[in-house]
Amino acid sequence: MKNNNKRVKNDDPNNSESAVLYAINTLTEKVNSVFDSLSSRMDNLEKKFEDGLSEKIADAVRKVVHEEFGKEISNFKKQINQDIGNIKSDLDKLTKSYAEVAKPSANNKKCNIVIKNLTPCTIEINDPSATMNTVNKLLRDGLKLTDIKVSQAKRLTPKGKNKTGLIIATVDTFEQKQKLMKSKIQFEKSKNFANVYIENDLTPEMRNNDNNLRQILKMVGKERNFKVFGGRILPNKAKSVLNYLNLDIIGVCETFLKNDDNIEISGYQWYGHNRKFKNAKTKRGSGGVGVLIKVEVLDNFSVSILDSSVEDILWIKLSHKYDDSNNICFCVCYLPPEGSSRLNDGEKFYNDLLQQVYCYQNEGFVYIGGDVNSRCGSEQDYIQGVDDINDREIIDVSSNKYGDLLIDFLTSCNLCMLNGRADGNNDFTCVSKRGRSVVDYVFAPHEQLDMCTSCDVYLMSNLRVDTGLNFEKSILDHGPIVWTVNVKKDIACDTRQAPNTDRPRYNLKRFPLNFLNNNKHIQDTIDKIENELVTNKDINSAYTEFVTLIEKEMKDTVPLLKTPTGPSSNKRKKSLRKPYWTEELTSLGNKVSIKEKQWLKCKNCTNLRRKLKQEFCNIRNQFDKLNRNTKRKFQLKEQDNLSKLFQSNNTWDFWKYIGNIGIANERRQNIPFKVKTDEGFRSDVDVVLDKWKTDYEKLFNSGDNGNFDNNHLDWVKGNNHVFPTRNCDTLNCPLTRQDVIDAVNRTKLNKAVGFDYIPAESLRNSICIDLLFKLISFCFQNGKVPDLWLNGIINPIPKNDSGCKFDPMSYRDENQIKNVLQTSVKNRRTFFKVLSIKCS
């Protein structure tokens, strides 16, 4: 109030009206402040009143509930005590002790297991009481458990004719049972025991209870949401699609990742290729591809990225750590659909993919998968009459521009679709409200079709039912394509030569000049060889001494060949230049590159950028048109040349010309390490080698069929007077040292060795020639040769493409004789004798 008085006193008397207004405003503020304070106090009073009232009501309710529950609990305790007393009285009346009955029974039931769908082994078929052998075989071969002991096993009588009957088995300890139950998931990966199930041994009461609970769930329609386990109803967790499909390698299209984002899934390693440029207004990325590889696969394969230079195309290589012939090159790609807001060029996409196939086709087994939005309709993906592959099942008859480009791409690089061709379920890969189509594919070379055992197309609606998944918004349009590849089925024979893989490789280009200069050791060997030839008449022992001498001397004097540990540096790379390429194509291609760079680097003027893009498209269309026309003319010319060679009598030039065209001829065609027997296809090492051995033994050691050519006998008798008039003494004259020298000089250097592993470089010295002269002279005089010379290396050559490549009789044998020196001397003498007869 003092402040207000002073202010009024200092004011101008003429402004008394303003002073009154100021006093009124001040009074209003005070009243409002008092009103707010009063309202706040009233609110606090109401809240305290409500809290107090609620607390009193809660205390009253708790008191009533406590009293009621106390009564019920006391009654329940009395009833339980009464039941316990009755049980104790009953237990006291038992005559048998707990150690004799209760404990063994509980332990046995606790350690029991039930085995379903286990086929009896051979011993059990003959002796039904030998069920334990069948169970032990299951644990040993199916689960790889050798430390679990089965104390007893009994097979129950099956209810049906084709049933195997349940097996009740008992293990020694409960810990062994727990280990067994944790390992039973391995049955899913086993071929022989995939249908075998192991469960706990339940009492009849527990089984009846579980069955009743399952019937209740079925009646209320909740059998998919809940499950019965151990007498309890538990929620049924949705099974992951990855666990359901059990995939080793997963290709993902349209990851929608940006920058360096990746996908993290337990048990898988991610290799991604995200788009570098995206719309600034979008929160997520667009496009993008990637590959998920199971961690277990990385134990046998090392993974590297082959190529990620092209947007939405990723190539990875899985290099086998122990066998280079099992390398895999996998490509995942994505081509946006026609009419997409993102600018895309289908021709450029397939041209880039074609160039990459040319580059990496020799790196390993090639597989390409992805969403390419190409509808091929009823067009075939191979050249009819030229390619020998089966037709695919066509379910989508519509086509688009991308589909024509896809067909051209496949026929250019000898790839084909696995959809509808390999065994498995074929279906539409994209199903939505707008329609259904086949736009996702898996491609593989023609020669790898036999390695693809199955290819299944899954609909997302079916996966939702099978796995119990619940999608947040709607069911996805695209379903996965799962194909199975048995990489080890077609291991070539030349990769499985186990006997002599540890032999050292010598650098024959640095062969020493002082070879066989150890006079004492050489003289001892010469004495042994002469003793075996003269005294024992044993050519095998003598030749063994000779081979041992050469091997020991080479080990001491010849340097070893350094084998590179990394990739081969001297491997000749494939030329990327096409055989039909011309200077005009080169010039036009350079112009395309220049226009493309100008268009991509222009970021200022919209009109200029649009103009540069139009120029690029025009020059690119000219280049593509010229490229197609030139390629078509070249192919027609090649076909005309082949037709002329085929009509001529020169078959050598015809097949040589065929071998020099195409791209598939550079893929290594190895003989599959697999044979066809009466029991089916087998890939065991012993079975395959024995099959080849027995089939070729029948060719070279066929028995006498009892037929005799009388005409030939009459011809021999009629011309018998002619043969004695010809002098053949030159063929049987004694062998000279010069003959051996000439034969050694005629041998080619730096060539593969035979069964004795003696290179031709080691024979070109006087000591070896002397030893060879003694050995070969003994063979000429006595008509005996070392057993090692009777062996030969057979190089099978396919007879034709129509034959079964798993049948040894479908190959033409080329026998490489290894006793070249003796054969050279014989051929030389025979040649000069025949020549002299013709001249005379």
TrEMBL record:
Domain Endonuclease/exonuclease/phosphatase residue range list: 241-446
Gene3D superfamilies hit by this protein: Endonuclease/exonuclease/phosphatase
Record-level Gene Ontology MF annotations: catalytic activity
Protein name: Endonuclease/exonuclease/phosphatase domain-containing protein
Pfam family, one: Exo_endo_phos
Superkingdom of source: Eukaryota
Species of provenance: Mytilus edulis
